[in-house]
Amino acid sequence: MLDDAGPGPCPLRKLKIEADCPGLGREVRRALLELAGSLPIRKRSCDTRPEPMQRRSKASILYANTAIAMLHEPSNPIRCSAAFDRWQLPTHVAEAVWRGSELGAAAGRTVPSGHPALDAALPGQGWPTACLSDVLMPQAAVCEWRLLGPSLAALLAEKGSCLYLVAPPKQPHAMGLAQLGVKPEQLVWIDANGPADRLWVTEQLVKSDPVGAVLAWLPQARPEQIRRLQLNAHSCDAPVFLFRPETAVRDTSAAPLRLSVKPGMGWQIDVQIIKRRGAPLEDMLHLDAMPRNLGIVIPPRLRNLAQPALIPGSEVTHVLGRFSPAQLDGVRVAN
């Protein structure tokens, strides 16, 4: 691991100069030269064996340990003056380096989510493929279509694509989904009963690499079952969404993307990115999620529903049809 602090030239160049010491072993010298970029990285097979210890002198071993320790010595003046720039390394090495503070790249292609703020926070600027997307909600059948509705047209744009629904909590409304861009012939509803059947159907769909998207409701899936689905999703080019209760946030998940979705103010939904490839996102995303078909008939005054304000100092002291405790004094109640 390279340290960025301290003045002076990069320690890689220092290793490049001192690696010509004749006391170094052949394998140690080549490893240092590869680290410095003077030699291409050699692909070592499993049968590659280091030199026998009797052929290495104590001076060469001590020199190699000293050269490597130079990278971690706080008082060493031979240090990088600026932040470490990975593009100073060979191209094939620089492309494989990823910093945890950066937003990671998607493993496969991505599909735009239809929410610009969400796309900006997702690796690859959209819903990922070749992996799972774990969506956690307080209640099923509330936010699924408001979250995925804007992206359904893009998910089903390819010829022969279908939307596979595995054990949805309520019967899909074909005419309502048609207004979101899902044709009736593109809708496949699989009514699987029981956790084992739901898991088996989802696994078979992921293995078949379907064209379109897979939406599975797996409220009782265990972490090891999610891990198995994730391994199978590596070869699946379709986005795979798992909808589970928000109580599963306490469990581990092998899904690279985890979201917490719940209803927000008015027509909004609140999305919290729990896990992604990259730096964590602490802010809550407030996405406008009015269904497209309702946007035509809803008047402008009902598009932005604000939270009702409370009148300071006011207190409701009665309920319709009953006396308040303050009004019960002096009231005769006939039995």
Question: What layout of secondary structure does this protein have?
Answer:
Blueprint lengths: L10 H8 L7 H11 L21 H12 L21 H4 L15 E2 L4 H6 L5 E2 L3 E6 L6 H5 L3 H4 L6 E5 L7 H6 L7 E4 L4 H13 L4 E6 L5 H11 L6 E6 L11 E7 L4 E8 L9 E4 L47
Parallel strand pairs: 3-7, 3-8, 4-5, 4-6, 6-7
Antiparallel strand pairs: 1-2, 8-9, 9-10
Helix pairs in contact: 1-2, 9-10
What does this structure look like?
- The chain is of the alpha/beta class.
- The protein folds into two domains: 11-94, no CATH class; 110-302, 3-Layer(aba) Sandwich (Rossmann fold), CATH 3.40.50.300.
- The protein is built from ten helices and ten strands.
- The chain has helices at 11-18, 26-36, 58-69, 91-94, 116-121, 144-148, 152-155, 174-179, 195-207, 223-233; strands at 110-111, 127-128, 132-137, 162-166, 187-190, 212-217, 240-245, 257-263, 268-275, 285-288.
- The strands form two sheets. An eight-stranded mixed beta sheet has the order 5-4-6-7-3-8-9-10.
- Helix 9 (195-207) packs parallel to helix 10.
- The longest helix has 13 residues, at 195-207.
Instruction: List segments where confidence is low: pLDDT < 50 over at least 5 consecutive residues.
Output: 1-24, 43-81, 313-319
CATH architecture call of the largest domain: 3-Layer(aba) Sandwich
Shape: globular
Total beta strand runs: 10
CATH-derived topology of the largest domain: Rossmann fold
Order of helices and strands: HHHHEHEEHHEHEHEHEEEE
Overall CATH class of the largest domain: Alpha Beta
Give the rounded overall mean pLDDT.
Answer: 77
| Spatial ordering of strands, largest sheet | 5-4-6-7-3-8-9-10
Number of helices: 10
Provide the gyration radius in Å. Answer: 30 Å
Q: Determine the strand fraction and express it as a percent band.
A: 5-15%
Largest sheet: 8 strands, mixed
Helix content: 10-25%
Distance between the termini: 85 Å
Structural class, by secondary structure, is alpha/beta
The named CATH superfamily of the largest domain: P-loop containing nucleotide triphosphate hydrolases
Count of folded domains: 2
